[in-house]
């Protein structure tokens, strides 16, 4: 967008009290039954039911495609210490600012109304937006905000109409060309926030077939971009596949934590064979270091205690798994798999090339590794080799 002269805004602003983030809507699961797709959107964990169950029941649910046209309210769920999510990928998001005076306002007046609305309605506790610049641009007002939470901050640009009534969280430049086939470039701009070294979190359940599918798709890119991007395996906050999943989650958590250089080799073996002990030996995992980490994690995150405390289970059926609890809450993780890139949930094609492109789109300047072509065939769900006929949006979720 073309921009005119920027103006500074006085810094003295009264702190507003943001609203609490919404709770996750609880949904009861039926055993061994497939359900209609569920959107894996930004939500917080629901309160567990008082019902008891002796053991969690296995269930693979179809989760719908993560919607890209998410409004700015997503900020409340995914604002986090290492960065902030503000963007809605490849879409225009807007919301009504509220009842304000009609007619054209000055850029400062309209921008202040928008920032006040964001602070009053769209941010979670501990997060504040402060107006720092504003200008007229393409018939609307563009304004810069600084989001702060403790010592962390990020500057983000949004747009507001001149009457101060509509807030736009993102724009699409329709003057940009698209190739003849209607597609994007080799590394398409998905609207994901960009950084010099993208942060990628893959939330899975270690025995969820679709979490395994996403891991298999991600592994070639993890190896290719290991020095360029920070790609991590994370774990959904509850268990759906019994005690074996509790144990395997913790094995993967500890290998990544203390022996990260062994993780890709281990996962390449485990996702194909499901034999953790043999794969640890093949990958050269130090068993003493692993055992020490498992014991420490069990104590720190009450892993065994949560499994044995059936009264605390989610919906009375699913044991809680708190290793990445805070990240689950920040990003609104609901099921496996969920991919978060630079703080923003993303829908990622479950092929090595698709995953690589999603990560490469998050670089401020993509490295030469992004030009390396990987397989475009979708990985197969579950443990084992082979490919799927098409990429899937299915997942495991309560």
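^ Assign residues to that structure.
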């Amino acid at each position: 967008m073309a921009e005119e002269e920027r103006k500074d805004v006085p810094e003295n602003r009264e702190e507003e009290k943001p609203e609490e983030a919404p709770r996750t809507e609880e949904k009861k699961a039926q055993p061994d039954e497939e359900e209609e797709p569920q959107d894996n959107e930004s939500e917080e964990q629901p309160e567990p039911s008082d019902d008891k169950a002796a053991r969690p029941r296995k269930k693979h649910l179809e989760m719908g495609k993560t919607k890209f046209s998410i409004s700015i309210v997503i900020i409340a769920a995914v604002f986090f210490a290492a960065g902030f999510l503000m963007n809605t990928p490849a879409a225009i998001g807007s919301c009504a600012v509220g009842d304000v005076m009609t007619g054209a306002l000055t850029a400062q007046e309209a921008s202040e109304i928008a920032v006040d609305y964001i602070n009053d309605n769209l941010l979670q506790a501990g997060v504040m937006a402060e107006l720092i610049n504003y200008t007229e641009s393409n018939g609307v007002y563009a304004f810069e905000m600084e989001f702060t939470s403790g010592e962390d901050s990020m500057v983000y640009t949004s747009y507001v109409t001149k009457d101060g009534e509509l807030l736009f969280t993102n724009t699409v430049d329709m003057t940009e060309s698209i190739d003849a086939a209607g597609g994007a470039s080799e590394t398409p701009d998905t609207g994901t926030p960009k950084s010099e070294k993208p942060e990628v979190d893959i939330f899975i359940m270690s025995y969820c077939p679709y979490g395994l599918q996403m891991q298999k798709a991600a592994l070639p890119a993890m190896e290719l971009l290991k020095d360029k991007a920070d790609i991590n395996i994370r774990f959904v906050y509850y268990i759906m596949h019994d005690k074996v999943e509790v144990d395997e989650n913790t094995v993967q958590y500890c290998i990544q934590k203390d022996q990260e250089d062994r993780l890709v080799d281990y996962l390449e073996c485990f996702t194909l064979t499901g034999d953790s002990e043999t794969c640890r030996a093949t990958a050269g995992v130090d068993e003493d270091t692993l055992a020490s980490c498992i014991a420490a994690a069990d104590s720190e995150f009450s892993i065994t205690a949560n499994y044995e405390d059936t009264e605390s289970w989610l919906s009375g059926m699913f044991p809680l798994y708190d290793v990445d609890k805070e990240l689950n809450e920040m990003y609104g993780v609901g099921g496996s798999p969920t991919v978060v890139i630079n703080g923003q949930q993303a829908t990622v094609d479950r092929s090595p090339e698709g995953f690589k492109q999603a990560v490469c789109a998050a670089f401020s300047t993509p490295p030469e590794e992004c030009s390396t072509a990987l397989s475009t065939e979708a990985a197969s769900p579950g443990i084992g080799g082979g490919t799927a006929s098409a990429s899937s949006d299915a997942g495991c979720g309560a």
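Residues 1-93, 177-185 have pLDDT under 50 and may be disordered.
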